[in-house]
Write a structure and sequence with these properties.
2 domains; 4-stranded mixed sheet; 257 residues; binds hexanoyl-coenzyme A; Lyase 2-enoyl-coa Hydratase, Chain  A, domain 2; 2-enoyl-CoA Hydratase, Chain A, domain 1; alpha/beta; 46% helix
Length: 257
Amino acid sequence: MAYETLIVETHEAVGLIRLNRPQALNALNSTVLAELKQAYGSFHVDETIGAIVLTGSEKAFAAGADIKEMQPLDFADVYKSDFISGWDEIAKARKPVIAAVSGFALGGGCELAMMCDFIIAADTAKFGQPEITLGIIPGMGGSQRLTRAVGKAKAMDLVLTGRMMDAAEAERCGLVSRIVPADKLVEEALAAAAKIASLSRPSVLMAKEAVNRALETTLEEGLRFERRLFHSLFATEDQKEGMAAFIEKRKPVFKNR
Ligand code: HXC
């Protein structure tokens, strides 16, 4: 399928999606959302794909929601259409998604990166929630996911001042999992995604569910949920294969069942 705002490729078992609106620093408009849903959907139904990498350009992962598209809207418009709720579908992707962030990840761009399972940042990355400087607040999860990721003090600092933080600060406060040189960003993200895609699919999906559950529930319920998923993996052929391969000192051959 031909996309207007994305470049979509497959690299063996990894789906790679590049945001591609260079004239607007990858600002997220309704076409980007519709096309991302399409690209995610096609990777999710494709059994050969085990993980997804979402990236932008060297200059910008995404500089936010498209301000030119939003500027004329009034309260009735955004309320009646439940504006931006469509992004929830992106956040609920079942297969693992890695955000590979170079340059600006601002506003909705930072929020889109946070919808992914983890963020690998180029040393050039800059994160921020500048909505307050436009007379609005984050609307795609910035006040919620950012606070869970970095804690109240840092989230308040970023959301109330609208300032940007660099990759080093983002790594220190736990927003990004690792920093790599900008020219190695996509390569490193693809390698991480290929590793995930090589593992048993049921265990990967359950690991993702279990970690996400930690953000939604009490410790006791979370531990119970984890243990039940853990138990259920003993019903898979891949658990037998993974453990047999370890004992026999060979590489496992997973069947994803
Ligand atoms: C629409 C944008 C844009 C955006 C940049 N552009 N960001 N268009 N929406 N969010 C466009 C510019 O208008 C310009 O187009 C072109 O991209 C290049 O941008 P410049 O500003 O010339 O580049 P530069 O000087 O390098 O500055 C980069 C920047 C700046 C610091 C990232 O562009 C910037 O501050 N952008 C806005 C960041 C922001 O406020 N994001 C939050 C948006 S609100 P022209 O045609 O003029 O050359 C949001 C809410 C999300 O995200 C949740 C609710 C939906």
